[in-house]
Design brief:
The complex is a heterodimer of chains A (382) and B (228). Chain A has 382 residues and is of the alpha+beta class. Chain A has 12 helices and 12 strands. In chain A, helix 1 crosses helix 9, helix 7 runs parallel beside helix 11 and helix 9 crosses helix 10. Chain B has a domain of 158 residues: 3-Layer(aba) Sandwich (Rossmann fold), CATH 3.40.50. The chains are: A alpha+beta (382), B alpha/beta (228). At the A-B interface, helix 1, helix 8, helix 9 and helix 12 of A face helix 2 of B.
């Protein structure tokens, strides 16, 4: 399975077990930190993009002098549906209320208008006084009841918890009967908070905005998916800049590691000279050192990358979310996009393996250019 | 095995501090035959080590050539000389064992790049250690050995690969009379198997050398043969 040179290289590592272990641990931690720093903004970006793709093309809200106000469902749906290019109009009843552990988003659910993201996730719809909660919602002292404070304060019976796979969309969501939702956020019957509008073509959403605004007898505000994307992109870019600054010390640590490794290899020139005197060619020495370094670097890089994935996408995300975003509660699952994740893996592998391998080549190539006698001269005192 | 090594007009100049050169070897012409031990003697600083380094391809001459089997070895590039050294066993003046390797691992060193299995390398090295009487020290670390034991280990390392050329620089400096005789017999045995064995030594009792050795004295950079 392994050739003699590979076994010899591995034995060489074991001759300095403490040094090898220390190098391995340092590499794992450096890769894990760098990987997390590179992976987290990408994960946020991919997650937000996925969320926005599932969001309606246009969200329409009624304006009045005090801000937003409820809109009459029947008249609004009729007004929106007559605009050419509109495919579907969904009135939504939702709002933010106080839960036991902080703010929660409640949503009144109509049987005929179940959002696409929740299709298949609901076993039954909530009756009055019942609630279905998202994966990240904490119920407080009692597991069966949830106290919510909005316009009124009331306890609701928790009948189900949405599965973790829908966590990206439903993390802090409480689904409830439409009547209960209206009552909690103070929306009168026959009224909705906003309209979720889907259009025939994605690129039409900007074009039909003016028609949509004109079709309503009262002032409305429309937010398109593209506008939301732009808004989030701005805050993501700010986050990325912060991450880029945080990457600098990690990269410096890596440079230091490589430089120490190169210096260590250079310091063994006399040993390399003796090996050459014993019939080792430059190629043999490069192979030997390459096997030795890869025996540490490859597993360490792999473990470090896995660790960073666990930190960002797994249970460790609590730490990352707290550190980067200040989220104290259980964060939602982030979306793992294969291409983006693969790019980070390649980036990491390149960042770690290329300099480490270069640090192996340098002493061997220096040795190739000098006489063996000169290489072992400094070992004369042995 | 080999037929011999020929030196032709070998010159080595060492630069000195006053911008002048010191002529260490001055047009050395010699032929070292396989089958017999060749001894190069001379006083300290006469250039014996330099001559051996050049013959072994560890350093380049300033002028002249080293010819092996009609090949001008001294003109070869580094990689060719590295590969050629696989046929050579070298005993250094300072043994140059690797400190963090055991005696066995030090002896195995020349065999590792040859593509043999680890068990073959191990058994071959044990055999070489047995020949020099160091088998009981196989698992000791090199830095725990005495000067004589280190020298014996270095000799075992030089002969482990059954080389066609053996270059030994003061190989008996730390050995007692009996050990010197044993090591000399061992090197003579290799010479008899058609290897070129060149020993650089000063103060060596030439009567202890078995067979019919070629003896040369290096004086003022010139190599002169003499009868033992």
């Amino acid at each position: 399975m392994f050739n003699t040179m590979q076994i010899w290289a591995f034995r060489d590592l074991l001759r300095r077990p403490f040094e090898s272990l220390l190098l391995g641990i340092t590499l794992i931690l450096t890769v894990a930190i760098l990987g997390t720093l590179l992976l987290f903004p990408r994960a946020l970006h991919d997650t937000l993009n996925t969320l926005l793709e599932a969001a309606p093309a246009i969200v329409l809200r009624r304006l009045d002098p005090t801000g937003f106000s409820p809109l009459p469902v029947q008249a609004s749906v009729l007004a929106a549906e007559k605009v050419i290019g509109v495919v579907s109009v969904r009135p939504r009843i939702w709002g933010v209320v106080h839960g036991p552990d902080g703010p929660l988003t409640i949503m009144g659910i109509l049987e005929e208008k179940i959002p696409e993201a929740l299709a298949g996730a609901l076993t039954r719809l909530p009756e009055p006084g019942e609630a279905i909660i998202g994966f990240g919602v904490s119920t407080g002292p009692s597991a069966d009841t949830l106290e919510l404070k909005g316009v009124i304060s009331r306890n609701y019976q928790v009948i189900d918890r949405l599965p973790e796979r829908t966590s990206m969309f439903t993390h802090d969501l409480v689904l409830m009967n439409t009547g209960d939702a209206r009552e909690l956020i103070g929306i009168p019957k026959g009224y909705a908070c906003d309209l979720a509008i889907d259009v025939f073509h994605e690129n039409e959403q900007d074009a039909i905005l003016s028609d949509l605004i004109d079709s309503f007898p009262w002032p409305v505000e429309c937010v398109t998916r593209l506008q939301s994307q732009g808004l989030f992109a701005g805050s993501l870019n700010r986050g990325r800049t912060l991450v880029a600054i945080a990457v600098i010390p990690a990269v410096l640590a890596l440079c230091l590691l490589v430089s120490v490794n190169t210096r260590k290899s250079m310091g063994r020139q006399s040993d390399l000279g003796i090996m050459k005197a014993m019939g080792w060619t430059t190629g043999d020495i490069i192979r030997f050192q390459l096997y030795r370094e890869l025996s540490v670097c490859l597993p360490s890089t792999a473990v470090g990358i896995c660790l960073s994935f666990v930190l960002v996408y797994g249970p460790g995300a609590v730490w990352a979310a707290d550190f980067f975003l200040g989220w104290k509660t259980l964060p939602p699952s982030l979306y793992l996009e294969t291409t983006g994740a693969a790019a980070v893996v390649l980036e990491m592998a390149g960042l770690i393996l290329v300099p480490m391998i270069a640090s192996v080549f340098l002493p061997a190539l220096k040795g190739a250019a000098s006489d063996v006698h000169d290489m072992i001269k400094d070992a004369g005192s042995r | 095995m080999s037929s011999g090594i020929t030196c032709r007009d070998l010159c080595v100049l060492f630069p000195m501090e006053n911008n002048k050169n010191r002529r260490v070897l001055d047009k050395v012409n010699a032929r070292f035959q396989a089958g017999e031990i060749s001894i190069v003697t001379g006083s300290v600083g006469a250039g014996k080590t330099t001559l051996l380094n050049i013959l072994a391809g560890l350093a380049r001459p300033t002028a002249g050539e080293v010819i092996v089997n009609d090949e001008r070895v001294s003109r070869w590039t580094g990689p060719h000389r590295d590969r050629w050294r696989r046929q050579a066993g070298i005993v250094f003046q300072h043994d140059h064992l690797l400190h963090d390797l055991t005696v066995l691992e030090n002896v195995m060193l020349p065999l590792i790049p040859l593509g043999r299995t680890l068990s073959t390398c191990r058994s071959q090295s044990m055999e070489a250690l047995k020949k020099v009487g160091m088998l009981h020290h196989a698992s000791s670390f090199a830095n725990s050995l005495s000067g004589g034991e280190r020298q014996k280990t270095a000799i075992a390392r030089a002969i482990v690969n059954q080389p066609g050329f053996i270059f030994a620089d003061e190989p008996f400096a730390h050995l007692d009379g009996e050990s010197t005789r044993q090591m000399m017999d061992l090197l003579h045995h290799h010479a008899c198997q058609n290897a070129v064995v060149i020993i650089a030594a000063h103060g060596l009792n030439l009567d202890t050398i078995p067979g019919n050795p070629l003896c040369c004295r290096l004086e003022n950079g010139v190599l002169n043969p003499f009868n033992s």
